[in-house]
Amino acid sequence: MAPSPTGTLHLGTARTALFNWLFAKKEGGTFLLRIEDTDIERSKEEYIKNIYDGLQWLGINWDESPTIQSERVNEHKQIIKTLIDKGFAYKCYASEHELEEMRETQKKNGLAPKYDNRHRNLTPEQESEFINAGREPVIRFKISDQKLITWNDLIRGKMTWSGKDLGGDMVIARRAPADLIGDPLYNLVVVADDSAMQISHVIRGEDHLANTAKQILLYEALDLNIPVFAHTPLILNSEGKKLSKRDGVTSISEFKKMGYTSEAMANYMTLLGWSVPEGINERFKISEISEIFTFKKVNKASAKFDWDKLNWLNSQVIHEMSAETLLENLNPLFKENGWHLPSHEWGINLVGLIGPSMVLINDGVDQAKSFFEEPELIDDGKKQLEIKEAAVILKFILEKLGNTDADSFSKEKALDLINQATKHCDVKKGLVMKSLRAALFGTLNGPDLIQSWVLLSRFSKDRTRISRFI
Protein backbone atom coordinates (compact mmCIF):
# COMPACT_ATOMS: atom_id res chain seq x y z
CA MET A 1 0.00 0.00 0.00
CA ALA A 2 1.52 3.32 -1.05
CA PRO A 3 -0.42 6.44 0.01
CA SER A 4 0.77 9.95 -0.77
CA PRO A 5 0.93 12.34 2.23
CA THR A 6 -0.48 15.32 0.34
CA GLY A 7 -3.72 15.21 2.34
CA THR A 8 -5.56 13.25 4.98
CA LEU A 9 -6.30 9.53 4.54
CA HIS A 10 -9.11 9.37 1.96
CA LEU A 11 -11.91 6.82 2.09
CA GLY A 12 -10.87 5.40 -1.29
CA THR A 13 -7.24 5.06 -0.24
CA ALA A 14 -8.28 3.39 3.00
CA ARG A 15 -10.54 0.96 1.11
CA THR A 16 -7.62 0.07 -1.17
CA ALA A 17 -5.40 -0.46 1.88
CA LEU A 18 -8.07 -2.71 3.38
CA PHE A 19 -8.27 -4.87 0.22
CA ASN A 20 -4.45 -5.14 0.25
CA TRP A 21 -4.51 -6.16 3.91
CA LEU A 22 -7.30 -8.70 3.44
CA PHE A 23 -5.55 -10.27 0.45
CA ALA A 24 -2.21 -10.45 2.29
CA LYS A 25 -3.84 -12.12 5.30
CA LYS A 26 -5.77 -14.59 3.15
CA GLU A 27 -2.68 -15.59 1.16
CA GLY A 28 -0.31 -15.66 4.12
CA GLY A 29 1.64 -12.77 2.63
CA THR A 30 3.17 -9.58 4.00
CA PHE A 31 1.32 -6.27 3.97
CA LEU A 32 3.80 -3.45 3.32
CA LEU A 33 3.34 0.30 3.62
CA ARG A 34 5.25 2.86 1.59
CA ILE A 35 4.85 6.61 1.99
CA GLU A 36 5.09 8.20 -1.46
CA ASP A 37 6.31 11.66 -0.48
CA THR A 38 8.16 12.65 -3.65
CA ASP A 39 5.79 15.62 -4.09
CA ILE A 40 7.99 17.68 -1.79
CA GLU A 41 5.92 20.86 -1.86
CA ARG A 42 2.60 19.20 -0.91
CA SER A 43 3.79 16.36 1.36
CA LYS A 44 3.55 17.08 5.09
CA GLU A 45 4.47 15.24 8.26
CA GLU A 46 0.99 15.86 9.67
CA TYR A 47 -0.51 13.94 6.75
CA ILE A 48 1.89 11.03 7.29
CA LYS A 49 0.74 10.88 10.91
CA ASN A 50 -2.88 11.07 9.79
CA ILE A 51 -2.34 8.10 7.44
CA TYR A 52 -0.68 6.03 10.18
CA ASP A 53 -3.39 6.90 12.72
CA GLY A 54 -6.23 6.25 10.28
CA LEU A 55 -4.98 2.83 9.18
CA GLN A 56 -4.30 1.72 12.76
CA TRP A 57 -7.72 2.96 13.89
CA LEU A 58 -9.32 0.79 11.20
CA GLY A 59 -7.32 -2.23 12.36
CA ILE A 60 -5.06 -2.25 9.30
CA ASN A 61 -1.57 -2.88 10.64
CA TRP A 62 1.52 -3.21 8.43
CA ASP A 63 4.01 -6.04 8.87
CA GLU A 64 7.29 -4.14 8.46
CA SER A 65 8.51 -0.60 9.06
CA PRO A 66 7.11 1.80 6.46
CA THR A 67 9.35 2.71 3.53
CA ILE A 68 9.74 6.45 2.97
CA GLN A 69 10.08 7.02 -0.75
CA SER A 70 11.99 10.31 -0.55
CA GLU A 71 14.81 8.55 1.30
CA ARG A 72 15.57 6.59 -1.87
CA VAL A 73 15.90 9.50 -4.29
CA ASN A 74 19.55 8.72 -5.10
CA GLU A 75 18.60 5.17 -6.13
CA HIS A 76 15.79 6.58 -8.30
CA LYS A 77 18.17 8.97 -10.08
CA GLN A 78 20.66 6.19 -10.70
CA ILE A 79 17.93 4.16 -12.41
CA ILE A 80 17.05 7.14 -14.59
CA LYS A 81 20.72 7.46 -15.58
CA THR A 82 20.69 3.77 -16.49
CA LEU A 83 17.66 4.30 -18.74
CA ILE A 84 19.39 7.22 -20.46
CA ASP A 85 22.60 5.25 -20.93
CA LYS A 86 20.67 2.34 -22.48
CA GLY A 87 18.77 4.60 -24.85
CA PHE A 88 15.38 4.14 -23.19
CA ALA A 89 15.16 7.74 -21.98
CA TYR A 90 16.36 11.18 -23.11
CA LYS A 91 16.47 14.85 -22.20
CA CYS A 92 13.62 16.95 -23.51
CA TYR A 93 14.20 20.71 -23.69
CA ALA A 94 10.71 21.73 -24.88
CA SER A 95 9.55 24.74 -22.89
CA GLU A 96 6.21 24.93 -21.12
CA HIS A 97 5.14 27.57 -23.63
CA GLU A 98 5.97 25.29 -26.56
CA LEU A 99 4.14 22.38 -24.95
CA GLU A 100 1.08 24.54 -24.36
CA GLU A 101 1.09 25.67 -28.00
CA MET A 102 1.35 22.01 -29.06
CA ARG A 103 -1.67 21.08 -26.94
CA GLU A 104 -3.72 24.01 -28.24
CA THR A 105 -3.01 22.99 -31.83
CA GLN A 106 -4.02 19.41 -31.10
CA LYS A 107 -7.21 20.64 -29.47
CA LYS A 108 -8.11 22.78 -32.50
CA ASN A 109 -7.61 19.74 -34.74
CA GLY A 110 -9.87 17.60 -32.53
CA LEU A 111 -6.99 15.50 -31.21
CA ALA A 112 -6.36 14.35 -27.66
CA PRO A 113 -3.45 16.14 -25.95
CA LYS A 114 -0.26 14.14 -26.46
CA TYR A 115 3.46 14.89 -26.44
CA ASP A 116 4.69 14.66 -30.04
CA ASN A 117 8.14 13.30 -29.09
CA ARG A 118 9.78 16.29 -30.81
CA HIS A 119 13.03 16.02 -28.84
CA ARG A 120 13.39 12.24 -28.90
CA ASN A 121 16.22 12.29 -31.45
CA LEU A 122 18.07 15.55 -30.89
CA THR A 123 21.57 15.80 -32.31
CA PRO A 124 24.43 16.81 -29.98
CA GLU A 125 24.51 20.16 -31.77
CA GLN A 126 20.80 20.81 -31.18
CA GLU A 127 21.12 19.83 -27.56
CA SER A 128 24.07 22.21 -27.12
CA GLU A 129 22.01 25.06 -28.55
CA PHE A 130 19.26 24.48 -25.99
CA ILE A 131 21.78 24.29 -23.15
CA ASN A 132 23.49 27.50 -24.29
CA ALA A 133 20.05 29.16 -24.41
CA GLY A 134 19.66 28.33 -20.70
CA ARG A 135 16.98 25.70 -21.13
CA GLU A 136 16.59 23.03 -18.46
CA PRO A 137 15.32 19.63 -19.62
CA VAL A 138 12.94 17.07 -18.19
CA ILE A 139 13.77 13.40 -18.68
CA ARG A 140 11.37 11.43 -20.86
CA PHE A 141 10.98 7.67 -21.24
CA LYS A 142 10.37 6.49 -24.80
CA ILE A 143 6.98 4.93 -25.54
CA SER A 144 6.44 3.38 -28.95
CA ASP A 145 3.05 4.04 -30.53
CA GLN A 146 3.13 0.51 -31.94
CA LYS A 147 3.72 -1.16 -28.58
CA LEU A 148 0.90 -3.26 -27.07
CA ILE A 149 0.95 -3.68 -23.30
CA THR A 150 -0.97 -6.57 -21.79
CA TRP A 151 -1.43 -8.03 -18.33
CA ASN A 152 -3.85 -10.30 -16.51
CA ASP A 153 -5.65 -8.23 -13.92
CA LEU A 154 -6.96 -10.13 -10.88
CA ILE A 155 -10.22 -8.18 -11.03
CA ARG A 156 -10.62 -7.15 -14.68
CA GLY A 157 -9.08 -10.09 -16.46
CA LYS A 158 -6.94 -9.57 -19.56
CA MET A 159 -6.08 -5.92 -20.10
CA THR A 160 -4.55 -4.45 -23.25
CA TRP A 161 -3.27 -0.93 -23.84
CA SER A 162 -1.74 0.57 -26.94
CA GLY A 163 1.36 2.74 -26.65
CA LYS A 164 -0.30 5.39 -28.82
CA ASP A 165 -2.92 5.94 -26.09
CA LEU A 166 -0.42 6.77 -23.32
CA GLY A 167 0.17 10.42 -24.17
CA GLY A 168 3.56 10.20 -25.87
CA ASP A 169 6.96 9.81 -24.27
CA MET A 170 6.54 9.94 -20.48
CA VAL A 171 8.24 12.44 -18.16
CA ILE A 172 10.12 10.54 -15.44
CA ALA A 173 12.12 13.44 -13.93
CA ARG A 174 11.37 17.13 -13.43
CA ARG A 175 13.33 19.96 -15.00
CA ALA A 176 16.90 20.47 -13.88
CA PRO A 177 20.16 21.78 -15.33
CA ALA A 178 21.33 19.59 -18.24
CA ASP A 179 24.20 18.08 -16.24
CA LEU A 180 21.85 16.96 -13.45
CA ILE A 181 18.80 14.73 -13.09
CA GLY A 182 15.72 16.45 -11.67
CA ASP A 183 13.34 15.11 -9.06
CA PRO A 184 12.15 11.63 -10.13
CA LEU A 185 8.41 11.32 -10.78
CA TYR A 186 5.69 8.88 -9.76
CA ASN A 187 5.74 6.19 -12.45
CA LEU A 188 9.50 5.76 -12.29
CA VAL A 189 9.86 5.73 -8.52
CA VAL A 190 7.04 3.25 -7.88
CA VAL A 191 8.59 0.78 -10.29
CA ALA A 192 11.99 1.22 -8.64
CA ASP A 193 10.58 0.84 -5.13
CA ASP A 194 8.20 -2.03 -5.90
CA SER A 195 11.15 -3.95 -7.30
CA ALA A 196 13.44 -3.07 -4.39
CA MET A 197 10.74 -4.09 -1.90
CA GLN A 198 10.07 -7.32 -3.85
CA ILE A 199 6.40 -6.50 -4.21
CA SER A 200 4.51 -9.47 -5.65
CA HIS A 201 1.04 -7.89 -5.95
CA VAL A 202 0.02 -4.27 -6.59
CA ILE A 203 -3.59 -3.56 -5.62
CA ARG A 204 -4.89 -0.07 -6.34
CA GLY A 205 -7.78 1.90 -7.85
CA GLU A 206 -8.91 1.62 -11.46
CA ASP A 207 -7.87 5.24 -12.02
CA HIS A 208 -4.31 3.86 -12.19
CA LEU A 209 -4.93 1.62 -15.22
CA ALA A 210 -2.99 3.88 -17.61
CA ASN A 211 -0.17 4.17 -15.07
CA THR A 212 0.05 0.39 -14.92
CA ALA A 213 0.56 0.21 -18.68
CA LYS A 214 3.34 2.82 -18.46
CA GLN A 215 4.96 1.08 -15.50
CA ILE A 216 5.02 -2.30 -17.26
CA LEU A 217 7.10 -0.66 -20.00
CA LEU A 218 9.54 0.54 -17.34
CA TYR A 219 9.72 -2.92 -15.75
CA GLU A 220 10.54 -4.37 -19.16
CA ALA A 221 13.17 -1.74 -19.98
CA LEU A 222 14.87 -2.33 -16.63
CA ASP A 223 14.54 -6.13 -16.94
CA LEU A 224 12.68 -6.34 -13.60
CA ASN A 225 10.07 -8.84 -12.45
CA ILE A 226 6.59 -7.50 -13.14
CA PRO A 227 4.17 -7.84 -10.19
CA VAL A 228 0.58 -9.07 -10.43
CA PHE A 229 -1.92 -6.20 -10.68
CA ALA A 230 -5.47 -5.77 -9.38
CA HIS A 231 -7.46 -2.60 -9.99
CA THR A 232 -10.33 -1.97 -7.59
CA PRO A 233 -13.54 -0.15 -8.60
CA LEU A 234 -13.99 3.53 -7.93
CA ILE A 235 -16.25 4.77 -5.14
CA LEU A 236 -19.04 7.00 -6.43
CA ASN A 237 -21.32 9.49 -4.70
CA SER A 238 -25.12 9.39 -4.81
CA GLU A 239 -25.06 11.12 -8.22
CA GLY A 240 -22.82 8.46 -9.73
CA LYS A 241 -19.73 10.69 -9.79
CA LYS A 242 -16.34 9.88 -8.27
CA LEU A 243 -16.39 10.58 -4.53
CA SER A 244 -14.42 13.75 -3.83
CA LYS A 245 -13.96 16.47 -1.24
CA ARG A 246 -16.93 18.26 -2.80
CA ASP A 247 -19.12 15.56 -1.26
CA GLY A 248 -18.16 16.75 2.21
CA VAL A 249 -16.85 13.96 4.39
CA THR A 250 -14.24 11.86 2.57
CA SER A 251 -11.35 11.35 5.00
CA ILE A 252 -11.20 8.64 7.63
CA SER A 253 -10.44 11.16 10.39
CA GLU A 254 -13.63 13.04 9.50
CA PHE A 255 -15.73 9.89 9.72
CA LYS A 256 -14.18 9.17 13.11
CA LYS A 257 -14.90 12.71 14.29
CA MET A 258 -18.54 12.35 13.23
CA GLY A 259 -18.95 9.36 15.51
CA TYR A 260 -18.51 6.37 13.23
CA THR A 261 -16.81 3.35 14.79
CA SER A 262 -13.70 1.76 13.31
CA GLU A 263 -15.44 -1.61 13.16
CA ALA A 264 -18.39 -0.27 11.15
CA MET A 265 -16.12 1.73 8.82
CA ALA A 266 -13.92 -1.29 8.06
CA ASN A 267 -17.00 -3.47 7.61
CA TYR A 268 -18.63 -0.99 5.23
CA MET A 269 -15.48 -0.29 3.22
CA THR A 270 -15.12 -4.02 2.54
CA LEU A 271 -18.62 -3.97 1.04
CA LEU A 272 -17.67 -1.11 -1.30
CA GLY A 273 -16.88 -3.28 -4.28
CA TRP A 274 -16.75 -6.73 -2.67
CA SER A 275 -19.74 -9.09 -2.76
CA VAL A 276 -20.45 -11.13 0.34
CA PRO A 277 -20.34 -14.89 -0.40
CA GLU A 278 -23.59 -16.79 0.02
CA GLY A 279 -24.27 -17.67 3.63
CA ILE A 280 -22.17 -14.80 5.04
CA ASN A 281 -23.88 -11.93 6.87
CA GLU A 282 -23.12 -8.37 5.77
CA ARG A 283 -22.31 -7.51 9.36
CA PHE A 284 -18.81 -8.83 10.11
CA LYS A 285 -15.35 -8.13 11.48
CA ILE A 286 -12.52 -7.80 8.96
CA SER A 287 -10.53 -10.42 10.88
CA GLU A 288 -13.27 -12.90 9.96
CA ILE A 289 -13.44 -11.88 6.30
CA SER A 290 -9.66 -12.14 5.87
CA GLU A 291 -10.11 -15.90 5.96
CA ILE A 292 -12.38 -15.97 2.88
CA PHE A 293 -11.49 -12.81 0.92
CA THR A 294 -10.80 -13.27 -2.82
CA PHE A 295 -10.69 -10.92 -5.78
CA LYS A 296 -13.18 -13.13 -7.58
CA LYS A 297 -15.82 -11.43 -5.45
CA VAL A 298 -14.61 -7.89 -6.19
CA ASN A 299 -16.79 -6.19 -8.77
CA LYS A 300 -15.55 -4.43 -11.89
CA ALA A 301 -18.36 -1.90 -11.67
CA SER A 302 -17.94 1.18 -9.49
CA ALA A 303 -19.35 1.10 -5.95
CA LYS A 304 -21.88 3.72 -4.87
CA PHE A 305 -21.46 5.15 -1.38
CA ASP A 306 -24.58 4.49 0.69
CA TRP A 307 -24.96 6.54 3.88
CA ASP A 308 -27.98 4.50 5.02
CA LYS A 309 -26.02 1.24 4.88
CA LEU A 310 -23.09 2.77 6.78
CA ASN A 311 -25.42 4.21 9.42
CA TRP A 312 -27.16 0.87 9.84
CA LEU A 313 -23.86 -0.95 10.31
CA ASN A 314 -22.67 1.67 12.77
CA SER A 315 -25.87 1.40 14.81
CA GLN A 316 -25.45 -2.38 14.92
CA VAL A 317 -21.91 -2.04 16.26
CA ILE A 318 -23.06 0.42 18.94
CA HIS A 319 -26.03 -1.73 19.95
CA GLU A 320 -23.75 -4.75 20.32
CA MET A 321 -21.35 -2.86 22.60
CA SER A 322 -21.40 -3.59 26.31
CA ALA A 323 -22.40 -0.64 28.48
CA GLU A 324 -18.82 -0.54 29.74
CA THR A 325 -17.38 -0.20 26.23
CA LEU A 326 -19.95 2.38 25.20
CA LEU A 327 -19.16 4.47 28.28
CA GLU A 328 -15.44 4.25 27.45
CA ASN A 329 -16.25 5.75 24.06
CA LEU A 330 -18.57 8.46 25.38
CA ASN A 331 -16.89 9.61 28.58
CA PRO A 332 -14.04 11.46 26.79
CA LEU A 333 -16.68 13.34 24.79
CA PHE A 334 -18.59 14.12 27.98
CA LYS A 335 -15.42 15.57 29.51
CA GLU A 336 -14.82 17.71 26.40
CA ASN A 337 -18.17 19.34 27.20
CA GLY A 338 -17.25 19.81 30.84
CA TRP A 339 -19.58 17.04 32.01
CA HIS A 340 -18.57 14.74 34.84
CA LEU A 341 -20.23 11.52 35.93
CA PRO A 342 -21.60 11.46 39.51
CA SER A 343 -20.42 7.85 39.64
CA HIS A 344 -19.32 5.07 37.30
CA GLU A 345 -22.54 3.19 38.00
CA TRP A 346 -24.57 6.26 37.04
CA GLY A 347 -22.67 6.48 33.76
CA ILE A 348 -23.32 2.80 33.04
CA ASN A 349 -27.04 3.33 33.64
CA LEU A 350 -27.06 6.42 31.42
CA VAL A 351 -25.46 4.72 28.40
CA GLY A 352 -27.70 1.72 28.93
CA LEU A 353 -30.65 4.11 28.59
CA ILE A 354 -29.54 6.06 25.52
CA GLY A 355 -27.52 3.37 23.71
CA PRO A 356 -30.41 1.61 21.93
CA SER A 357 -31.38 4.78 20.04
CA MET A 358 -27.84 5.77 19.02
CA VAL A 359 -26.65 5.56 15.40
CA LEU A 360 -23.40 7.50 15.85
CA ILE A 361 -21.19 7.69 18.91
CA ASN A 362 -21.77 11.45 18.87
CA ASP A 363 -25.51 10.84 19.23
CA GLY A 364 -24.72 9.90 22.81
CA VAL A 365 -23.53 13.44 23.47
CA ASP A 366 -26.72 14.97 22.11
CA GLN A 367 -28.92 12.54 24.02
CA ALA A 368 -26.99 12.88 27.27
CA LYS A 369 -26.92 16.67 27.24
CA SER A 370 -30.21 17.11 29.06
CA PHE A 371 -28.92 14.94 31.93
CA PHE A 372 -25.97 17.26 32.52
CA GLU A 373 -27.37 20.65 31.53
CA GLU A 374 -30.73 22.21 32.29
CA PRO A 375 -32.65 22.05 29.00
CA GLU A 376 -34.54 24.86 27.36
CA LEU A 377 -38.31 24.58 27.18
CA ILE A 378 -39.28 23.97 23.56
CA ASP A 379 -42.73 24.29 21.97
CA ASP A 380 -44.26 20.92 22.80
CA GLY A 381 -43.04 21.07 26.38
CA LYS A 382 -44.23 24.66 26.80
CA LYS A 383 -47.66 23.77 25.46
CA GLN A 384 -47.91 20.84 27.86
CA LEU A 385 -47.02 22.93 30.90
CA GLU A 386 -49.64 25.53 29.99
CA ILE A 387 -52.34 22.98 30.80
CA LYS A 388 -53.90 24.17 34.07
CA GLU A 389 -53.54 20.80 35.85
CA ALA A 390 -49.81 20.60 35.08
CA ALA A 391 -48.75 22.98 37.86
CA VAL A 392 -50.94 21.15 40.39
CA ILE A 393 -49.42 17.80 39.40
CA LEU A 394 -45.86 19.10 39.60
CA LYS A 395 -46.46 20.77 42.98
CA PHE A 396 -47.78 17.50 44.40
CA ILE A 397 -44.79 15.54 43.04
CA LEU A 398 -42.29 18.10 44.36
CA GLU A 399 -43.81 17.99 47.86
CA LYS A 400 -43.55 14.20 47.89
CA LEU A 401 -39.96 14.33 46.67
CA GLY A 402 -39.14 16.59 49.59
CA ASN A 403 -39.83 13.63 51.89
CA THR A 404 -37.81 11.19 49.76
CA ASP A 405 -34.09 10.43 49.99
CA ALA A 406 -32.52 11.12 46.58
CA ASP A 407 -30.02 8.28 46.94
CA SER A 408 -32.75 5.73 47.49
CA PHE A 409 -35.12 6.96 44.79
CA SER A 410 -35.90 4.01 42.54
CA LYS A 411 -38.00 2.97 39.57
CA GLU A 412 -40.60 1.52 41.93
CA LYS A 413 -40.82 4.74 43.92
CA ALA A 414 -41.10 6.78 40.74
CA LEU A 415 -44.01 4.67 39.47
CA ASP A 416 -45.70 4.83 42.85
CA LEU A 417 -45.37 8.61 42.93
CA ILE A 418 -46.92 8.91 39.46
CA ASN A 419 -49.83 6.74 40.57
CA GLN A 420 -50.31 8.87 43.70
CA ALA A 421 -50.30 12.06 41.60
CA THR A 422 -52.82 10.55 39.18
CA LYS A 423 -55.18 9.68 42.01
CA HIS A 424 -54.67 12.82 44.10
CA CYS A 425 -55.08 15.25 41.19
CA ASP A 426 -57.85 13.21 39.60
CA VAL A 427 -56.24 13.20 36.17
CA LYS A 428 -55.14 10.59 33.66
CA LYS A 429 -51.72 9.04 34.08
CA GLY A 430 -50.68 10.26 30.62
CA LEU A 431 -51.15 13.86 31.71
CA VAL A 432 -48.97 13.28 34.76
CA MET A 433 -46.18 11.65 32.75
CA LYS A 434 -46.21 14.24 29.96
CA SER A 435 -46.17 17.14 32.43
CA LEU A 436 -43.33 15.53 34.36
CA ARG A 437 -41.29 14.90 31.21
CA ALA A 438 -41.81 18.48 30.02
CA ALA A 439 -40.64 19.84 33.38
CA LEU A 440 -37.60 17.56 33.54
CA PHE A 441 -36.44 17.69 29.91
CA GLY A 442 -38.23 20.63 28.27
CA THR A 443 -39.85 18.41 25.63
CA LEU A 444 -42.22 15.46 25.29
CA ASN A 445 -39.66 13.36 23.41
CA GLY A 446 -36.87 11.35 24.93
CA PRO A 447 -35.85 8.00 26.39
CA ASP A 448 -37.79 6.06 29.02
CA LEU A 449 -39.21 8.61 31.49
CA ILE A 450 -38.95 6.53 34.64
CA GLN A 451 -35.31 5.55 34.10
CA SER A 452 -34.47 9.12 33.12
CA TRP A 453 -36.12 10.49 36.24
CA VAL A 454 -34.23 8.09 38.49
CA LEU A 455 -30.93 9.20 36.93
CA LEU A 456 -31.74 12.88 37.44
CA SER A 457 -32.79 12.23 41.02
CA ARG A 458 -29.35 10.90 41.94
CA PHE A 459 -28.10 14.46 42.25
CA SER A 460 -31.48 16.12 42.91
CA LYS A 461 -31.75 17.76 39.52
CA ASP A 462 -35.35 16.54 39.30
CA ARG A 463 -36.35 18.75 42.20
CA THR A 464 -34.63 21.81 40.75
CA ARG A 465 -36.21 21.40 37.35
CA ILE A 466 -39.74 20.72 38.61
CA SER A 467 -39.64 23.76 40.89
CA ARG A 468 -39.20 26.06 37.85
CA PHE A 469 -42.81 25.46 36.78
CA ILE A 470 -44.73 25.80 40.04
Q: Any guess at the CATH architecture of the largest domain?
A: Alpha-Beta Complex
Unreliable residue stretches: none
Total number of helical segments? Answer: 20
Whole-number count of domains:
5
What is Rg? 32 Å
Protein structure class: mainly alpha
Fold and architecture overview:
The protein has about 475 residues and is mainly alpha-helical. It has 5 domains: about 10-65 and about 190-235, HUPs (Rossmann fold), CATH 3.40.50; about 75-185, Glutamyl-tRNA Synthetase, Domain 3 (Glutamyl-tRNA Synthetase, domain 3); about 245-320, Orthogonal Bundle (Glutamyl-tRNA Synthetase, domain 2); about 320-370; about 380-465, Arc Repressor Mutant, subunit A (Orthogonal Bundle), CATH 1.10.10. Helix content is about 50%, strand content about 10%. It has 20 helices and 11 strands. The protein has a 3-stranded antiparallel sheet with strand order 3-4-7. Strands 1-2 form a two-stranded parallel ribbon. It has a two-stranded antiparallel ribbon with strand order 5-6. Helix 7 (about 210-220) links the parallel strand 8 (about 200-205) and strand 9 (about 230). Helix 9 (about 260-270) crosses helix 11 and helix 16 packs across helix 18 (about 430-440). The model has no long low-confidence stretch (mean pLDDT about 95).
